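The instructor's notes for this session suggest beginning with a concrete chain rather than abstract definitions. Hand out the sequence below and ask the class to guess, before any prediction is shown, which regions might be ordered.
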Amino acid sequence: MNGRARPLPVGEAASLPLLRERGPCASFCGLSSILWLHRRMRDAFFLVVGSRTCAHLLQSAAGVMIFAEPRFATAILEERDLAGSADCQQELDRVVDRLLERRPDIRTLFLVGTCPSELIKLDLEKAAERLTARAGAGVKVLAFTGSGIETGFTQGEDQCLAALVPELPALAAGARNLLVIGTLADLVQDQIARLLGALGIGPVHFLPPADSHDLPPIGSGTDVLFAQPFFNSSARLLADRGARLLTAPFPFGVEGTRAWLAAAASAWEIPAERLAEVIAAPAARAEQAITRYREVLAGRRLSFLPDSQLEIPLARFLARECGVELIEVGTPYLDRRAMQPELDLLPPGVRLCEGQDVDRQLDRVAADRPDLTVCGLGLANPLEAQGLRTKWSIELVFTPIHGFEQAGDLAELFARPLIRAARLRV
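After discussion, reveal the predicted structure:
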C-alpha cells in the first residue's frame, strides 16, 4: 500500500503527468453521504448497520438539532453480534419492525452496510429482500454499502443510487427524456430545470428524487447528464439499461455550466444560438458575481488534497475563472470517462495526483507553502498550526455551488479564508 508515486500519461488532450499514490489515507467513509441524501429523499430512511463509532460519526458530522428527528439511525452491532453469538438477521428484523411501527411515513428504507457488518459477512441485500416482503405494500427495503473499506467520502451516494437503478421503471418505446444524476439543493435543481425547459429539453428528471417512489423511467431514449463526478457504479448500471451517458465539464462556474448545458443542447439538437440566448442573462450575472472575488484569488497559489472527488472540476474553475495558480490537484479516484473534459481544461504545470499517501502529500504541502490548501477536516488543523490557510472540502459538498447563480458563492468559499487571514494580520 506504500508504493512510490510514478508518473503516468493522462491522455492526448492533456499533457499533465499523473502521480499515483497508494498509501495511508485521511478521509471520511461513505456513510457521510447519508447526511445530504436523507435531506433530499424526504420519505426515505437510512438505517446504518454498524458500530457505535459509525453512530458517533453520523451524529457529530450532522449536527442534528434536538427537536428535529432525522431520517437516519444506527442499528448497533454489539460484541455478541461480532462474535457470532447472536442471530444478526433476526436482530435486524426486530429493529426494522420497531422502526417501521414508529415511523409509518417511511416509504423506502435503506440498509447501509459498514466495515463491521461487512467483516462479519452480514448479507444486507438478502435481508432487504426478506424485509420488503415482511413490510408489505408501500415500503421498499434496499441495501447499499457505505463501508470505508470500499468507498470514499462521496462514493456512498454512488452506491445508494446504484441500488436505486434496478428499481427504475422502463421508458416507453419511442419516448425520450433527460436524467440529471446527483443530489442538488432544491433551489439549484429548480434553476437547472428552468434553463433546460427554456431550451426545449424535456421531460427532465432528477435522481435521487424528492419522493423515493417517484422514480424516473430509463431506457434507450434516456440521456444522462452528471451533476457530480463520483457516479462510476451508477453510470455502468444506467448504460446497461440502455441510457446514453453525456460527457461534459461539470456545472461549476460560468464556463463549466455553459459547457454542461451545451452537452445537453447538442444531444437534443438545440441550436447554439438558442443556447446563447437562454443563458446570456444568468451567465452575465455569474461573471459579475465572480469579479469581486477574483481580486482576492488572482495569483494565489493553491493545492487540493484528495477527499471529495470534486477537486479537478473546482481546480479548473479556480484556474480559468479566478486566476488561481494551481500547485497540486489530488483526487481519491480518477474516472477518465467522466474527467477527460475537465483534464483538457487544466493549465499546464499542474501536479495531478490520484490516491493518497498522506505523509508524502503533507510533506509536499509543507515544501510548497500554498496560500490555500483544500483538504479534509482531519488535516486542516495541523496545517493551520503551521501557518497555512485551509478550506474544508466537506463544505464544498454541503453548500449549493452548481450553476450560474451560485458561481459567486463558489468563488467566495475559496476567498473567505484568505480575506479572514488578511484581516487577522491587520
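Then share the key points. The chain has three domains: 7-26+275-425, 30-151, 177-274. The CA atoms of residues 229 and 310 lie 7 Å apart.
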